[in-house]
Amino acid sequence: MKSRHNIKEIINSAVQAARAEGLIKIGTLPDIVIEKSRKDEFGDFATNIAMVLAPLEKRPPREVAAIIAAKIQDAKETTGVPLVKKCEVAGPGFINIFLMETYWLSILRDILDKGEAFGRSEAGAGKKVLLEFVSANPTGPLHIGHGRGAAVGDATARIMAAAGYAVTKEFYINDIGKQVLTLGRSVYIRYLQLLGKKIELPEDSYKGEYIKDVAIEFRKENGDNFNNGILDIQGNNRQIELLQPFIDFAKKRLLDDIKTDLAAFGVAFDNWFSEASLYKPENIVDKAIETLKKDGFAREEDGALWLKTMELANDDKDRVLVKADGSKTYLASDVAYHNEKAKRGFDILINVWGADHHGYEARIRAALKAFGHDPTILKIIFIQLVALLRNGAPVAMGKREGEFVTLRQVMDEVGADACRFFFLMRKADAQLDFDLELAKSQAPENPVYYVQYCHARIRSIIDYAKEQGVNVPADTEDEALALLTSKDDIDLIKHLALFEEVVEKSALAMEPHRVTYYLTELAGIFHPYYNRNRIVTDDAGLTAGRLLLCTATAQVIKNGLGLLGVSAPDKM
Fold first, then answer.
1. Of 392, 341, 338, which Cα lies nearest the Cα of 365?
2. What is the mean pLDDT of residues 466-477?
């Protein structure tokens, strides 16, 4: 993050110089707050450091600001080249800093030299992160809500890795419990129907067309030999044994479909963690529950076992781990799973959850605390709903019971790139309107097209220059860069310089939409820049400089799109 860090160094050096001369007395310098100025007349950056120091110095803020501003004005590069064009005291004691054009040209050179590495940093200091996302039940296809979670989780992982975190991506497979029993029963009944049995699906069954497809595939692979009679729909002791082949087949088939869809969406996981593995070969859940009981964080009442979430996390009530009939709740598995996560030595545990899981956060934090882990290592990204539109009108869900819009359907219609970009346009916990026709359009109103076209346009400019016998300079030539002095040139460079800070802040806040927003802004600056300024001109030096500026812009766009998992096409 060269620009902002450099300014901090300049301000810090100015304060130290003033202290060395006895002009101020402050010993330990507080954290320096720097803001990018919103208007050109207020400079490139502004800081409130004088107002922070004034009470400690027991002097008026403007007086302290004048002392520091004079020292900032003297700042120079290591080569002796001045860095600051002008430094002003404004308002109650703000310091506005105007930087020399040579400063911004040095950042342009930095972008060109770093190439694909520009935007990367060590802000995360190698901290180990386990990022769990999607974690859809293997009971049906991924829907668009899963798609938004997949895009947010994967982009967050990419951005955090770029900022120096060691990120592991994990998918938690809910492959036991009532939902998989219901899945097996639903497939079994469809199978019996294929054999001519007169039996209807119960109300709580999975009723989508995909269940019929699974039943057809099961019959194709296993024949007609699983006709063991009509199920007692209310359940009986033989039910699980009877359904197990259907459960195993359906889980594998649907999980394979989920993996296929995620791969097409550009998402790959490092780990696939099975909930069933918490129960065998050793029963990790039972061990976790025994630990909670032994340490006094679980209590028995009415034949059930309760986690003391009221005591541990100020929850509104304690939560059941084991029901009176001896069956374990979903919370029991989740408690054991998060204990296992923390025991693996991660510094940060990130979960990407649907917005309807807000109440669950306190329970998991309570469990982590009960097991002796720091509950603050858990970070939650909540995903709000996606409203699917077509030309501004809501898209009707499937007419048949049990049908819904799948991620695959949306990908097939608009493409994975548009899908990911649209899912990442807004903060994760804000509801998102996804217009299918807008996502397909080749128009400036389509943000993903607008950004990708910016990259393709630059590549076509470079190709045109080659056709004219002009190549992008192999070296970042000082003479060529020195000709980039117009306000348009410098404004574009200033926005390119922000990219490192955007990536770092996006990683620290776990907010990938910041990168999407930045790229949209960058495209909004470059397209008018191109319309106002010829790139290939009769002036060889200016042409070389602007080709370098275009190359840097394309590089930043490509780097940013890569962090979102979106391609940067050379032609469109």
1. 338
2. 86
Is residue 64 within 8 A of residue 76, CB to CB? The reply is no
Average pLDDT over residues 323-349: 97
Would the pTM of this model clear 0.85, i.e. be above it? yes
The per-residue pLDDT for 419 is: 98
Task: State yes or no: pLDDT of 98 exceeds 50.
Answer: yes
Segment 211-224 mean pLDDT: 96
The residue assigned the tokens 């310091």 is 95
* Burial class of residue 360 in the structure, from the number of CB atoms within 10 Å of its CB (0-12 exposed, 13-18 middle, 19+ buried): middle
Contact at 8 Å (CB) between 390 and 438?
no
DSSP 401: T
Do 424 and 510 touch, CB atoms closer than 8 A? no
Beta bridge partners of residue 84, listed in sequence order: 99
Higher pLDDT among residues 30 and 326, named by residue: 326
Q: List alpha helices for 44-128, DSSP H.
A: 49-57, 61-73, 101-114
- Where helices occur in 86-238 by DSSP H, the ranges are 101-114, 144-162, 178-194, 209-222
Query: Taken in order 421, 423, 429, 435, is the CA torsion positive or negative?
Result: positive
- Look up residue 187 and give its two tokens: 């497939």
> CB neighbours (10 Å) of residue 60?
14
Q: What percentage of the chain has pLDDT greater than the value 70?
A: 94
Domains and CATH numbers, the chain: 2-99 (3.30.1360.70), 178-264 (no CATH), 447-564 (1.10.730.10)
Residue 511 per-residue DSSP state: -
Do 205 and 184 touch, CB atoms closer than 8 A?
A: no
Asked whether 514 and 16 are in contact (CB, 8 A), the reply is: no
> Residue 214 and residue 222: Cα distance in Å, rounded?
12
Q: Are strands 378-383 and 348-354 parallel, antiparallel or unpaired?
A: parallel
Q: Note the Cα 316 to chain centre separation in Å.
A: 31
Residues 437-473 as b/e (b if ≥16 CB within 10 A, e otherwise) read ebbeeeeeebbbbbbbbbbbbbbebbeebeeeebeeb
Q: What is the pLDDT of residues 37-52, one digit of tens each?
A: 888 899 999 999 999 9
- Confidence class for position 228, pLDDT limits 50, 70, 90: low
Please list, in sequence order, all residues whose beta carbon lies within 8 angstroms of the beta carbon of residue 206, skipping any fewer than 6 positions away.
Answer: 139, 140, 182, 183, 186, 402
Rounded CA-CA distance 225/91 in Å is 85
Name which of 13-17, 295-299, 542-546 the model is least confident about.
13-17
Mean pLDDT of 296-323: 96
- Angle among Cα 145, 151, 155 to the nearest 5 degrees reads 155
The residue whose two tokens read 């009470």 is 55
Q: Which residues pair with 97 in a beta bridge?
A: 45, 87
